[in-house]
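Human:
If only I could read backbone structure tokens as easily as an amino acid sequence. I am handing you a single protein, as its sequence and its fold in token form. I hope you can help me see how the letters and the tokens relate. Thank you; the sequence and its tokens follow:
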Amino acid sequence: MQFLTQAALSPYDLLKRIDRVWLSIFLIFAALLALNPPQFTLTLEFTLASFLRTSVFIGAAVALTAWLRAVNLAILIAEAFNRRKLEMIVLASLIGGIAPFCSCEVIPFVATLMAAGAPLSAIMAFWLSSPLIDPPMFLITASVLGLDFAIAKTIAAVAIGLMGGFAVLLFESFGFLHNPGRLDTPMASCCDSEQTMEERVEWRFWQHSGRVAVFWSTFLTNALFLSKWLLLAYMLQSLMVAWIPEQWIADSLGGSGAGSVMLGAFIGIPAYLNGYAAVPLVDGLLEQGMSPGTAMAFLIAGGITCIPAAMAVWAIARRAVVAAYVGLAFGGAVAAGLAWNLV
């Protein structure tokens, strides 16, 4: 009887346990089927075809992320901060390009570095570059937007990290941005939970049962995570192409000037769903007339300053640091967008 009582959950508790992304996919398809059956068929076909087309890249991205977790790459990243400031800024920017952290997952690592007293200039370099690109993101971007776009975004990520690191170093020389952190202990990630293991790198992770468990847990978790977001993104891309007038996109976001690029960066902050989901959405916007530079600014600004990450930044850093973080991210996004339009 006690078991039945514990098992009986209220509708509200059941709703809280349902994944909102999967629920959104189901509800949108259900609404399309009831209200617009022809569009339901078109959207379903487009979503499944697009997902299958990128499934190889999804598998490679998930496997690579799981491998990086299992060998404990975070240790190598932490070691990069035990150097001279200028060297640390360069290394942090470069390592940010291979670290498998999204804009939310990087927050606990940054909080730990702040609590440990690492220089803010190096932290900012890593903080800005890491969410923008990593090997899985590179594969997904190359498969959808093209190899040249993926390479350009990688270069932009490292350049923005360098710009942010040296800018903070300059601010510090004038007496600003001291004591940046607000927490003395690490905080939890706002993304999926991470497995913990002994504090060392082990390249042959398959020789350790605990690391093998981390690999498969990370693989399955990220496979589901990536699949649901990409399915939602492809579904929204189909509806966006069908319902948003091409002329509006072309008029608002199609120019190569600073105004269109700044608008793309500004829109990217609230509209950015997820790093992987944003790529198909941008592909749809490009088809409707968005300029390449505006697309680059959208992805970079949203990748660094998406709303969940911004809330976490507000919790761990002092206000001046938050302002510097957002300002550098926005400025870097606009600069990258204008540069990509010129290319």
About this structure: Residues 1-6, 183-190, 192-197 have pLDDT under 50 and may be disordered. The two ends are 70 Å apart (CA to CA).
